[in-house]
Each structure stands twice: as structure tokens, then as C-alpha cells.
Amino acid sequence: MSKRTITDMNDLAQSEQLLKTLESAPQQTSETALSKSWLLGFDTETTGARPGRDAIVSATLVLRDPEGGHAKDVLGEWIINPHRHMSPGASKVNGFTDDYLQKHGIEPEDALESITQVIASAQNNNIPLLAYNAPFDVAMLQHDLGQWKLDSLESRITNDNILVVDPLVIDRAVSHRSSKRTLSYTTEYYGVEPDGDFHNATADTVAAVDLIQPMTTLYPQIGHLTIGELMAWQQHAHSVWKDSFNQWLVSKGRRPIHDGWFE
């Protein structure tokens, strides 16, 4: 088996395997280059698209050793009973139904605690959390933790702020192509072969993590970015993109957007 996929383990075993691997990972510093960095991929499927009103129903973490690639990936997958209804639109996209989640989903407190422990352990080792359009997934996690009265991610980490890699923000900054920026279009552009169907948390997580190798190869300035430089660089890149996008929106008579990127 090329990957240590642990979906057949119980919730506790999944988090223990990930935590054990993190303990053996080298201690990264602010000088570690992105191209050489371990990464913890993260993706969710949800009841809808509104953090605070919707909830996570499926989540995947993929721990990637840059020297081992896929062969050393450690995966954890969680199906969660959100105790709220799936929206028809979300159900059509991700395939989850209320009946399935009630029968097969684990309790949110257990899943969210396990997921957050792993993310916090990675953060405290300067291993970035990687997610495509990361503000959405992180916001969903933060709101769900609050909903179930669990300790926040920020309270568990020693860094001042969460350390994130967002391939969407990076791609917007370096690739001046005209095609769409969805995960499926972006992976096709960079020659990444999907491992499963998109809108599946595991397939999406692996695909997003796989983007880093071609990005850092095609654009050496990205590969040379250090862990200590990542957040400020991405915040600036998002700000530049937002200003340009808002100019286009206004020219079309549409409202500008105001969302920041982990600011």
C-alpha cells in the first residue's frame, strides 16, 4: 500500500497515527523554504457555504513529507454527523445526505477535537496548513469548534497566528492565465493528476498538496519563500488581486468584495 491511509481506523487511531508521524518530523524553522517544507493538507465538505450557519460533514488531513511524496503520505479522514440538515445544493455537489450522515457520521466533538489536535501539533512544528481557498475551510473549523464549545485552534498554538499555504492565492499571483481558478482547472493547468473525484475531501486535499511541487518548480521565487515570509507574501498577493478584481467588478456595475486573507 503506497499510502498509509487510515480511514479504516477509529477516530482516535487516526489522530494518533498523524500525531506520531508529526513527532518524528524534523523541527522546521522560519528559514525553511516552502519547496523543502513538510505540509499538512486540509479540506472539508460541508452542509452549505455559510461558516457559522453550516457545518463540516467530511474532513481530510494529508501529511506530506517533501522527500517522500505520495509514498509517505499519512491520511486521516472523518465523516461527521453535523446534527443539522444538508442543503440540497451542497448535497448535490458532495453526495452526502442527512440519512447517510446520521448512520455513518461520528460525533462532531470527537472529530473536531482530533482534527484540531493534529493541526495544532503541525503548527507548533512550523508545518503549514495547506488548503485551497484556505479562509473557507479554516473559518468552518473555527465556527464548528465554537459551536461545540471546544478550545479554539489559536489557543492551542504557540505562534502568534496560524501558518497557512493557499495554492489559490499563490496561483493568482504568479499565473496570468485566463482560465478559471477552481481546483480542477488549476490542477489541470499544472499537470496534476487527481487521485479520485473532485468534491471529495480526500481527493481535493491530495490534489491541493500536489500543486506545490509544480508551482515551486515553475516559479522558483515561490519555492524560495521561507516559512517566515509566507503569510505576509500571501496577504500582499491577495490584496493586489482583490484591488484588481474590484476594479473589474465596479466596471461591470457590481459590488466590490471586502474579504481579506487572514488579516
UniProtKB/TrEMBL annotation:
Does Hydrolase appear among the keywords? yes
Query: Which Gene Ontology terms cover its molecular function?
Result: 3'-5' exonuclease activity; nucleic acid binding
Name of the protein: DNA polymerase III subunit epsilon
Q: Which SUPFAM superfamilies match?
A: Ribonuclease H-like
Exonuclease domain boundaries: 38-221
Listed GO CC annotations: cytosol
> Which CDD domains does the UniProt record give?
DEDDh
By its UniProt entry, which InterPro entries does this protein fall under? Ribonucl_H (IPR013520), RNaseH-like_sf (IPR012337), RNaseH_sf (IPR036397)
Q: Answer yes or no on keyword Hydrolase.
A: yes
Keyword terms: Exonuclease, Hydrolase, Nuclease
Which SMART domains does the record match to this protein?
EXOIII
